[in-house]
Amino acid sequence: MRPFSFIAAILVVALGNCPAATADSHAPAGITFFRADVTVREDSTLDVREEITVNDAAPYYKRGFRRDLPISVNDLWDPRYVPLYQHDNGIRVDILEVTEDGQPVDYKQGSGYGYPQLSIGPQNAPLDRQEHHFTVHYLVDSAITPIQGRDLLYWNAIGVNGNVPVAEAIVAIHLPATIPRESIEVERRVASQGGHSKLLPGATLGPLDDPTGAIVYRATNVGPRQSLSLAVTWPAGYVKLTKYIHLWRDGRLLAFPCIVFLYYLLAWFRIGPDPKPGIVQARYEPPDGLSPAAIRYIASGTTDGRTFAAVIAQLATRGCLRVESANGKIKLSKLMSDRATQSALAPEEEGCLSLLFEDGPTIELSPAMDERNAAQNGLYVQHIHDVLSRQLSGKYLVRHSGTVALGVLMTLFFAAILAATAKGRDPGGAFMFTFWILFVGLMLGMMIEMAFLSAWKTAIRARTGWIKMLPGTLAIAIFLSVIGFMLKKLSEGVSLSYALMLVAFLLINLGWAPLLKRKTPAGRELSDQIAGFRQFLQKVEQDRLNRIGGSLAGSAEDSQKLDALLPYAIALEVKEAWGDELAQAFFATTVFTEQ
Q1: How far, rounded to the nearest angstrom, does the alpha carbon of residue 251 sit from its chain's CA centroid?
Q2: What is the C-alpha separation between 322 and 554, in angstroms, rounded?
Q3: Burial, 103: exposed, middle or buried (Cβ in 10 Å; 0-12, 13-18, 19+)?
Q4: CA distance 349 to 356
Q5: pLDDT tens digits for 463-484?
Q6: What ranges do the domains of the chain cover?
Q7: Most CB within 10 Å of its CB: which of 98, 131, 177, 226?
Q8: How far is CA 546 from the centre of its chain?
């Protein structure tokens, strides 16, 4: 009998466990419960809290649990509520909290416009077959749109990108209490993208009463790639729509350029005003002891192609070289000169003469934009600039370069922190883009300020030489276009506020640096003398100067006609033919200034 008793006991235990086994086998797989509470704020942002319960969902989540937030153009597809398809619908989210089974959990936000992909918990491994309860809390910008005098919220709550069935789904829309209940209109639907899929057998959809006055709908048996969507409208005016609400929310980024601006403003007050100009009286001679290049350096604060032209004219006037022009190139030939002439040259002129003819008695200069010519032409102007800077800076001009350098370093420091902590749909290239924009933008802006605008002004005034300006103009336009392209990418990948922050950094540094230059009292007095000398050249000598060597046609006889005033006229932008032609030829590759 004992064997029969043993078998009977086994049968009793097995029968006793059958209901539990049957219940487990019929438990729904996938998402067993989904609820989204969407609170509409008066500033038009949405506060969304989602509760998602999954069970036996390993077949659906083979690389970990992933939630596609319903903000993409695929989710908000219905043409009755959204405009024609656009690559970026402008909707942005900010994740506040993610939990799994009541505990905070790590998550990773993916790429794409609006960055809707949210990978929660361990990745690259199937989700286990246990029941899990996830919550996602986030803010949404720019989801409410105006339509025919009413405001519209179209919310496709589950999203149509998930290939997971949903046993029960609830969506609750909480509107501001100031909106009259009778003025609210609601349309609801369970469907896939395009609305073509049919409801599964046994599916239901209907409203639920809510004591808080929220608009609540419940759907059951929602199929894969189907979603419960609500389109809620109410009269305009109860919610403040801001087209660029995300710009205001990210406006804290603009506080950093404000700090840099305040730094420059305080430095400007500390430095004090420039000495006031004195009475300008016409002078028939240049200030004693100053070469044409030195006069230009004091007058404009720049060493550029016109400075180079003035030095060459001075060397030609002193009989140290001959200038000829042919086939778009400028040929310089060294002439024999005595020791007295050599000793009378200014330091920058003597050094430039040695550099020009260190490889032979003749040299050809070309304004071409290739790397070799840029390096060659820049070498001469760099030498002139270095000599003038050592002689004149601090004595006649104070540029406060240390103050400007500290402002630039402050800018780069803030930019590095913000780039390293940038958030958005694709912040991966933010660091590289940020520093490329700042470096190239500052260099390009300095070139435009110091040489480009002046050269175009000269070309317009002289009505000639503008063709030589086109290569440089095109090069600058290309760099500006690249900067614009990178700013657009940062606007899309990080935020519009981030891109505007970089523009503000550039404008602040480029705008303030020239304003911090100051003349010393001696420099102010000397500038008044230079202004008087320039006045004399303009009113008395202009016609005669234009008749002397009116171009680079450059025979030896023409070179000998250049009188002592011509180099000064070129330096002070009075001589509009010879000086303009040479200055425009080299402006793109020869500009140096202390900032």
Answers
A1: 15
A2: 8
A3: exposed
A4: 10
A5: 655 666 677 778 888 999 999 9
A6: 28-248, 253-257+401-512, 290-398+517-590
A7: 226
A8: 46
CA angle 89, 432, 123 (to 5 degrees): 65
CA distances from 547 to 291, 322, 540, 566 (A): 23, 18, 13, 11
In which residue are the tokens 């250049």 written?
562
Nearest to 159 by CA among 118, 202, 203, 125: 118
Q: What are the pLDDT digits (tens) for 309-342?
A: 889 888 988 888 888 876 767 788 888 888 888 8
Tokens of 261: 């601006």
What are the strands, taking DSSP E only, across 267-328?
Answer: 303-304, 321-326
One-letter amino acid at 265 equals: L
Separation between Cα atoms, residue 90 and residue 44, nearest integer Å: 14
- What is 203-227 written as a DSSP string? -EEEEE--TT--EEEEEEEEPTT-E
Please, is 352 exposed, middle or buried when counting C-beta atoms within 10 Å of its C-beta (0-12, 13-18, 19+)?
buried
For residue 561, pLDDT beyond 50: no
Q: Which two tokens stand for residue 92?
A: 């942005």
Sheet holding 117-120, edge to edge: 65-68, 117-120, 107-109
According to DSSP, residue 253 is labeled G
Question: What pLDDT score was predicted for residue 11?
Answer: 45
The burial of 207, by beta-carbon neighbours within 10 Å (0-12 exposed, 13-18 middle, 19 or more buried), is given as exposed
Q: How far apart are CA 161 and CA 66, in angstroms?
A: 11
Give the C-alpha distances (Å, rounded to integers) separating 67 from 38, 116, 409: 17, 8, 42
- pTM for the whole structure: 0.61
Start-to-end CA distance of the chain, whole Å, equals 107
- What distance in Å separates the CA atoms of residue 168 and residue 222, rounded to the nearest whole number? 7
Q: Looking at domain 28-248, which CATH architecture does it have?
A: Sandwich (2.60)
Half-sphere exposure of 303 (CA within 13 A, CB side): 24
DSSP string computed for 63-93: TBEEEE-TTSTTTS--TTTS-S--S----EE
* Cα–Cα distance for residue pair 434/422, rounded to 1 Å: 11
